[in-house]
Amino acid sequence: EVQLVESGGVVVQPGGSLRLSCAVAGFSIDDYPMHWVRQAPGKGLEWVSLISWGGDSTYYADSVKGRFTISRDNRKNSLYLQMNSLRTEDTALYYCAKDYGSGNLGLFDYWGQGTLVTVSS
Amino acid sequence: DIQMTQSPSSLSASVGDRVTITCRASQGISNYLAWYQLKPGKVPKLLIYAASTLQSGVPSRFSGSGSGTDFTLTISSLQPEDVATYYCQKYNNAPLYTFGQGTKLEIK
Description:
The structure holds two protein chains of two kinds.
Chain A: E1 3-7, E2 11-12, E3 18-25, E4 34-39, E5 45-51, E6 58-60, E7 68-73, E8 78-83, E9 92-99, E10 108-111, E11 115-119
Parallel strand pairs in A: 2-11
Antiparallel strand pairs in A: 1-3, 3-8, 4-5, 4-9, 5-6, 7-8, 9-10, 9-11
Chain B: E1 4-7, E2 10-13, E3 19-25, E4 33-38, E5 45-49, E6 53-54, E7 62-67, E8 70-75, E9 84-90, E10 98-99, E11 103-107
Parallel strand pairs in B: 2-11
Antiparallel strand pairs in B: 1-3, 3-8, 4-5, 4-9, 5-6, 7-8, 9-10, 9-11
């Protein structure tokens, strides 16, 4: 059974840093591109970041570029999102998601339940 | 960048009703269109991809259609468990993965 379990969401002050984790079971993350998607309170979904299946390419939404870093540990079958210089507008439920195919489709066939990041003083 | 616009933003219908949600792309996206279902506290679910292909395990009352710029998600007979927010999303053009603003569906 495929499972994605996010963790690491907490309350953090503006300007602070945080590292989110996503533990994956049921497939090997090195076979697929992996993504982070977020949903701010009362708002819609926003794609955040992608790491290719080989880990050699990463992409970011303009809203987080230069502040967030996506990475993966294939031995631990886990995905990470390092979040620096956090802003109040980064407050959201953060989901990790598996890509449907190997070619950075951006089609999300499995999601986690999300972890809540609150940026507030 | 291509924008995705859904309508309506909210919808109330009765059990058994046929429900249609529309999604319009600001430019043609061929059939690279997916629909997702989000329920509070639950894992988001992929319903349809390639505009009209039903994801495995999704009830057949859900269907999708369209190509180019105009797309629809249809629920043929609304069930209580379909209460959720539905999002369309364009994909394939890395990394410009854009969602619509969502349609909140409630039971009347």
